[in-house]
Structures are given as C-alpha cells and as structure tokens.
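Worked Example 4.2. Consider the chain below.
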Amino acid sequence: MFATFKNVPMPDENGFFGEYGGQLVPPHLKAAMDGIATAYAEIRERPDFKEKLSGLLADYVGRPSPIFYARRLSRQLGGAHIHLKREDLNHTGAHKINHCLGEVLLAQFMGKKKVIAETGAGQHGVALATACALIGIPCEIHMGQVDIEKQHPNVTKMRILGCKVVPVTRGAATLKEAVDSAFEEYLKNPDDYFYAIGSVVGPHPFPMMVRDFQAVVGREAREQFQERHGRLPQHVAASVGGGSNAIGLFSAFLEDEGVHLVGVEPAGEGVDKPGRHAATLTRGRPGEIHGMKCYVLAGPDGTPSAVHSVASGLDYPGIGPQHSYLKDVGRVDYVAVDDQEALDAFMTLARTEGIPPALESAHAVAWAIREAPRMAGDEHILVNLSGRGDKDADYVAERLGL
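Applying the procedure from the previous section yields the following structure tokens:
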C-alpha cells in the first residue's frame, strides 16, 4: 500500500511522512477519512479498478505524455539542455486529470452520490468536472472569487460540464478560503459525499492517494528519458504549490541520488514581503492546516498568513507533508521564483518553442532559464510542464500590456 524512501514507508500506517501529515481532524471526520483510506487500500488493488483507470489514462487522457527537447530555448541560453514533460497535452490541459480520474472512479466504486472539491487556478476544477461528467456523478466546486475573476475561461468550462461552481468571498477569497468552504460542505454529509482534494495536502489518506495517482508522470518520465538518452537527467524540476505535480514527477527519482530534485515555489512580489508571496518551504515553519502537519506560512498566533502569487494554483499557505519531509532530510532543494520571472518565462517559452505554459508551470521553467546557462553543456534539466497557458493568456496580456 505504501511507497518507500530509503526503505521507510511513505507514509507510515498513521499517515505520517516523518513528523508531517497525519489526520488532525475531529473524531467524526477522522472516521470518514479512515473509511476512505480503507476503501482506497482495497479498491486500488481490484483488477476491474486498475483496468478501468489505466484504460482511461491511455484512451481518454492520452497517456503517455511525451518529453519534448526545447532545442531553441536551450541553444539561446547555452549550458544545460532543457526538456519538458508535456502534461499540458493531457485532456483538460494539465496534470490534474491524472488524480481526478482516480478519485472519481474511487468515489463511484464506493457508491458516493456527489463529489466536492476546491480549485485555485481552475485546472483541478475543470479536470474533476470532466471526470464527473464522464463517470456520471454530480460535481460541486468551491472557488475563491478572486480566482473566478482571473480564471473565467475555466469557470465557464466547469459550468458547461455540468458542475455547480460555488463562489467563495470570505477572507482573501482565494485557494485557502475555497478549501475551507468545500470542507464545510463535505461535512454536511460525509457518508454520501466524496471530497476530492486537488493536491497532495489535507488529512491522510489524501497526500498519499493523490501522489499515487500522479506517480504515473514520474514513471513515464524516467523510462522515456532513459530510453532516449541512455541515462537519467542531472536535474528534475517542478513548480510547487500544494505539490501534486512535483511529487508525481519526483516519486520515480527519489532513490536516484545522482538526480538533483528542485521544487520551485512562488516568491510573488518578494519573499521578504509578508502576505505578498506563497513560498511556504522558503519562509514557513512547521504548523497545522487543513487536517495535516506541514510547513505553513503563519502569523505569531499560528493563523495562516495571507499569500499571493501571479499563479492562482500556487497561492496556498501550506504544502504537502511529503514535501515538508523531503525538505527536512535535504532530498529536494526548494527555491523561489517571483512573479516577474514567471511572466518572463511564460513569454520566453511561448516565443522560442511555441508553448505558452500555465503560470504555475512557468515558475519551474523560470528556474531552468535562470540556471541552465550556469551549467555544463552535457547536463540535462527535465521540467514538468504541468499545464498549458490558455487559461492565463488574457491575464498575462493585460499584465504585460500586450
């Protein structure tokens, strides 16, 4: 049931990655989480579940996604060669569909009557609404009003797919508040509702379950790169908000000590400006949020801080517990890229390779653009291009005056 790192179960039987994770929830919610964990452990091993999920990933999502060598960008920068794992080519345009299909299928096998979730940039919402339409389960998505205004095309897609979109106007009206609102709705009827968390966050078993469904990205990438180059890349990078696309890619390389793993956080307007960034692992400290222990951006009283990122899917004051553990043991380097670097990377990749990336993915691309010229010409960087930039095009054009 469990993945391992250095022969240690990840997570342990109580849902902890080292000291992080767990089920920090009221007793009645713990019972619901335990029920999901038990059902997941049993259903994921059923041949009919595995066959249906693998078939949909191949024939519906379009897996495996390819690895593309960004030749013009690499030549322009000099130094290391940059390669892109093209999750943006998946149906719905991002990595989110991988775990959404898994979660909705699990809900169906459990006999649930409605799927509830939150979304930030809208990619999780679109992917979940898509999966629910495919499987035939009602879908309800909670989304911060600020993100609704920034990501209007995704909101329209969700509604076209038959999803009920619930605007959240409290507080900063972004991802953290959307999570709060969705959890409240779920608690009204946990027996009939299924909460489909959109990242590797929340109480056990969600950090494990979402990671497992996203691990297909890393398995493919490792095999594809070795087949093409006869070796592994020296550097593997992905953006980190809650952390699902990153842990999906990193999972296949954790035991490869020669592979440098890099998680790229949103520095926003600067990591020295409280409330104007979301660099949780760079500036946060261990704490509790949304039913788990992890690194958190919080005030002196422990209340989660306001956060900001140009990328709606990254503005979260917590982080997946496995990422918190990997930071502490030093297996992954977590760095930060600011809004302007991400916007510049968006435009650079669009104009050198014809690929506008999601602003979330642009943070990882920005790190590669920053670091490649400092590396040797025989080094390779593999970047998870976790989503496409269609949803961000109007916003970027407005920000840059295009």
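The mean pLDDT is 95. The domain at 14-57+95-207 is CATH 3.40.50.1100 (Rossmann fold). Compare this with Example 4.1 before moving on.
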